[in-house]
Amino acid sequence: MESIDPRAVGMAVALGLGLMVGAQREWAADKPIGVRSFALIGLMGGIVGLLTEGYGGWVLASALVVLTGAIFTHSLVLARRRPGAGMTTELAAIVLFLVCVMATTGYLLGAVVIGGVVALLLHWKSPLHSLVERIGEVESQAI
Asked: What is the value of pTM for the model shown?
């Protein structure tokens, strides 16, 4: 019986994570980056992970600089239209890219776990903010 190529599994996981996080962002009221963009960022991360095998870490570094530059430029344009907006989605996109690199470089389980955590953190915005608001000064100092 022929086994499935782990690179193909990694790419499938990268696409799945991009779709999952992107779908969560689509459900959010304010979505500067949506499901298609996150799916493409996931695929980009998977491809970059595969390319690092043959070409080295400079491929990853270059892609990270390009992606960060594109997201930063996009954020600057959006900031003019909606002042005071956060940058959580943009940071999630960069984290997702790195997680998808992990998926194709032998860290499949870690990629799935971290990708799930990213989706949960994005989804739990209101409960996390409520929790922080309920923590008083005494509790904060105790922590």
From this structure: 0.87
